């Protein structure tokens, strides 16, 4: 996208400025809190910033003749949409910290996850008690801290907004997003444990519900709507963004599900077959279970969720899922959802530049290798 790299720079600058203000409070309390500062910066320094980009494009699509945040007048990083985009990145970092605890993931983006960093700090320091318990406890608090900071950063961005109706609408979209993603996360962990007691003909519906609320809305639809709301979007513009954002969000998560089973660890930063060891009941697994013979289905069910799966067992499950046609079906679902999303842009009451860039970003987020 034309302004993508510049927006990422502005968001990074806004995050750094905000963290400097907040971590000065931590330092005034105790130097023992320095790891909270260091680890929060670590988890906010990378990533693809997709949510920030979608937030900006939702804003740009509505405010086609608005102030250009990329003009070199020094005000861009104070624009409400930049603060909202940065707040989404803090929220995402908080979600990742908590998600890694729930999934018992050792790595994030090829480096130790937050709870493992705190566990290592405990072990290296020679402190009393169990290092793993300290790691989990401290990471929960780090995630909570980032979550609270995301709210503060959003409010700082919305406070100077002259259109108070727009500010309230943006806050409402943000609040709804927080509720939906938490509900989706609960449904995800529930599905890993309750699937055996649920009717087999509901597995697709239940997997789709997890995709929708844990990821699709939060990753793409909500950022678009928050940005658009800040710009004063009308109901037709918001509805057009929903028609684009939800199917694209579904496609985005379906791609992520494929990467969770088949992704290259050198690229994804996660062990190969990580979702198999975690027992994720994704649409990919639902499709495979429908297609497999009873014996193969029982073997899949027995092995899925075994944290001790060997590389050979992972490879065997991967081959089984491919050969039954589940991967091909999920690829078709991705293509169909991307087509629905891009078709929604054709007559959307949004600026042409934003529609073009949304179309390009739709390809990027669903063809990614990590």
From TrEMBL:
Keywords: Magnesium, Metal-binding, Transferase. InterPro entries: Isoprenoid_synthase_dom_sf, Polyprenyl_synt, Polyprenyl_synt_CS. The keyword Transferase applies. Coiled coil: none annotated. PANTHER family: GERANYLGERANYL PYROPHOSPHATE SYNTHASE (PTHR12001), SHORT CHAIN ISOPRENYL DIPHOSPHATE SYNTHASE (PTHR12001:SF85). The lineage of its organism: Bacteria, Bacillati, Actinomycetota, Actinomycetes, Micrococcales. Pfam families: polyprenyl_synt (PF00348). It comes from Agromyces neolithicus. This is Polyprenyl synthetase family protein. The keyword S-adenosyl-L-methionine does not apply. Belongs to the FPP/GGPP synthase family. It comes from the Bacteria. Its cofactor is Mg(2+).
């Amino acid at each position: 996208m034309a302004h993508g790299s510049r927006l990422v720079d502005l968001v990074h600058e806004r995050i750094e400025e905000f963290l400097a203000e907040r971590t000065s409070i931590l330092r005034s309390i105790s130097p023992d809190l320095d790891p909270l500062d260091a680890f929060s910066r670590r988890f906010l320094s990378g990533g693809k910033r997709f949510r920030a980009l979608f937030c900006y494009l939702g804003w740009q699509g509505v405010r086609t003749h608005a102030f250009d945040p990329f003009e070199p007048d020094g005000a861009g990083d104070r624009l409400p949409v930049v603060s909202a985009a940065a707040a989404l990145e803090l929220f995402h970092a908080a979600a990742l910290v908590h998600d890694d605890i729930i999934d018992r993931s050792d790595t994030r983006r090829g480096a130790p996850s937050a709870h493992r960093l705190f566990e290592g700090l405990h072990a290296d320091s020679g402190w009393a008690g169990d290092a793993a318990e300290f790691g989990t406890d401290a990471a929960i608090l780090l995630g909570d801290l980032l979550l609270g900071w995301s709210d503060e950063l959003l409010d700082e961005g919305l406070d100077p907004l002259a259109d108070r109706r727009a500010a309230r609408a943006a806050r409402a979209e943000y609040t709804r997003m927080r509720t939906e993603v938490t509900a989706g996360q609960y449904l995800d962990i529930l599905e890993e444990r309750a699937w055996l007691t649920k009717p087999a003909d509901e597995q697709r519906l239940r997997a789709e519900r997890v995709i929708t609320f844990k990821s699709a809305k939060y990753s793409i639809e909500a950022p678009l709507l928050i940005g658009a709301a800040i710009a004063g979007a009308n109901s037709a513009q918001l509805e057009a963004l929903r028609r684009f954002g939800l199917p694209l969000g579904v496609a985005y998560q379906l791609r992520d599900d494929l990467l969770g089973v088949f992704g290259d660890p050198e690229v994804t930063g996660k062990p190969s077959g990580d979702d198999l060891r975690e027992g994720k009941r994704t649409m990919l697994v639902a499709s495979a279970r429908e297609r497999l013979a009873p014996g193969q289905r029982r073997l899949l069910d027995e092995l899925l969720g075994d944290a001790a799966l060997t590389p050979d067992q992972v490879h065997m499950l991967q081959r089984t899922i491919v050969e039954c046609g589940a991967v091909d079906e999920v690829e078709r679902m991705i293509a169909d959802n991307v087509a629905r999303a891009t078709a929604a842009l054709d007559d959307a009451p949004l600026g042409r530049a934003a529609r073009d860039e949304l179309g390009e970003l739709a390809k990027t987020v669903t063809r990614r290798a990590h």
